[in-house]
C-alpha cells in the first residue's frame, strides 16, 4: 500500500485537535464532523508512522512527537493563510485581505477609528485583526503588517518609525478622593497599585529609576493591559497606561507626571515582499498616518481631573 504525502488538510486537523484538546472540539473549530476529524488524524498518523495523541481523562493528550511537529504545522498554516490572502490581490481596485497584528490594548483602543477611516475610503480591503501581545513572525507570514513597540532587526522587513507613545501613572478621581494624591515616589508604596503578573523588562527598567514596582507591591496583577486599564477606569488604584487612553476622561488624573513619564517607541512593519501589494501598501500607509495622529494628538500632558483630599 502506497501512502501519499500528507496534505495541508491533515495538518490543519492535527492543529485543531492539538489546540482544542479533543476530536469534537477540533471538529467544531473547522466545521467538520467528529468521525471525519478522527479519520484525518488516523490518516496523518499512518502517513507519518507515529502516534500523535493518546487518550486521557480530560480528552486527547499530545505526544512528544506531536509537540515537536507543532511549530512546523503552524508555519504551514501561516503559509496557507498568506497564500489565500495573496490570491485576492489581483483585483485592480486594491481589494483583498490584509492581516494586521498589534497588542491587545492597541487593537481595542487605538486601531478601530483608524480602520474605520480606511474602510470608508477603501471598502474592498478586508481586515483580519490579530490582538496579541506575542510578537507575530512576519517572516513566516503570521501576519502581513504589525504595529510594534520595538524596532525590528530583520533585514527582510520594511519598518517605519512612527514616534513614541507617552505613558504615565493614572488614577480615577474617586480613588484620589478616598486616598489622596501621592506627593512623591516614596509615597506610592502606601497606595493601591495595579501592575503586571510577571516581572518584565519594563518593570526592571522602572525599578532602576526608583519606582517601587514589583509583583509583591501590586494589589492587582494582570499581564493583560486591557484588564489593567479597566481597573484604573473603575477606580481600583494607580496604574500605568498610554496617556492617550485617558486624556479625554475627566475622571482620570495623572499621578506624579513630572517624575514618572515614559514612552513606547512605535513602528509599523511589513515584509518587503509585500511592497508590490497595493492593498498592503494602502493599509500600511493608513496605519502609519493614523497612529502618527494618535501620538501627535496625545503628545501633551493629560488634563488633571478635579479631586479633593
TrEMBL record:
Residues 12-63 form the HTH lysR-type domain. One of its GO terms (molecular function) is sequence-specific DNA binding. Keywords: DNA-binding, Transcription, Transcription regulation. It comes from the Bacteria. It holds the Pfam family HTH_1. This is Transcriptional regulator lysR family. Belongs to the LysR transcriptional regulatory family. GO terms for biological process: DNA-templated transcription. InterPro entries: LysR-type_TF_proteobact-type, LysR_HTH_N, LysR_subst-bd, WH-like_DNA-bd_sf, WH_DNA-bd_sf.
Amino acid at each position: 500500500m502506497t501512502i501519499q504525502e500528507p496534505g495541508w488538510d491533515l495538518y490543519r486537523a492535527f492543529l485543531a485537535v492539538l489546540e482544542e484538546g479533543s476530536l469534537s472540539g477540533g471538529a467544531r473549530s473547522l466545521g467538520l464532523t467528529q468521525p471525519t476529524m478522527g479519520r484525518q488524524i488516523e490518516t496523518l498518523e499512518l502517513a507519518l508512522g507515529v502516534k500523535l495523541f493518546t487518550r486521557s481523562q480530560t480528552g486527547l493528550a499530545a505526544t512528544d512527537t506531536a509537540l515537536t511537529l507543532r511549530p512546523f504545522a503552524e508555519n504551514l498554516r501561516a503559509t496557507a493563510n498568506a497564500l489565500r490572502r495573496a490570491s485576492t490581490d489581483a483585483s485592480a481596485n486594491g481589494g483583498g485581505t490584509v492581516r494586521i497584528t498589534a497588542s491587545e490594548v492597541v487593537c481595542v483602543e487605538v486601531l478601530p477609528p483608524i480602520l474605520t477611516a480606511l474602510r470608508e475610503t477603501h471598502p474592498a480591503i478586508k481586515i483580519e485583526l490579530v490582538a496579541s501581545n506575542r510578537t507575530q513572525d512576519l517572516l513566516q507570514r503570521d501576519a502581513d503588517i504589525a504595529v510594534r513597540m520595538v524596532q525590528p532587526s530583520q533585514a527582510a522587513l520594511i519598518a517605519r518609525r512612527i514616534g513614541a507613545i507617552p505613558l504615565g501613572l493614572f488614577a480615577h478621581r474617586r480613588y484620589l478622593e478616598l486616598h489622596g494624591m501621592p506627593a512623591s515616589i516614596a509615597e506610592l508604596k502606601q497606595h493601591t497599585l495595579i501592575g503586571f503578573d510577571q516581572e518584565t523588562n519594563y518593570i526592571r527598567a522602572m525599578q532602576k529609576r526608583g519606582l517601587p514596582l514589583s509583583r509583591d507591591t501590586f494589589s492587582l496583577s494582570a499581564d493583560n493591559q486591557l484588564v489593567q486599564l479597566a481597573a484604573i477606569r473603575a477606580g481600583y488604584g494607580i496604574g500605568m497606561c498610554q496617556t492617550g487612553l485617558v486624556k479625554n476622561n475627566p475622571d482620570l488624573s495623572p499621578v506624579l507626571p513630572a517624575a514618572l513619564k515614559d514612552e513606547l517607541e512605535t513602528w509599523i512593519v511589513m515584509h518587503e515582499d509585500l511592497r508590490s501589494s497595493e492593498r498592503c501598501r494602502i493599509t500600511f500607509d493608513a496605519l502609519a498616518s493614523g497612529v502618527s495622529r494618535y501620538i501627535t494628538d496625545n503628545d501633551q500632558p493629560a488634563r488633571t481631573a478635579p479631586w479633593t483630599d
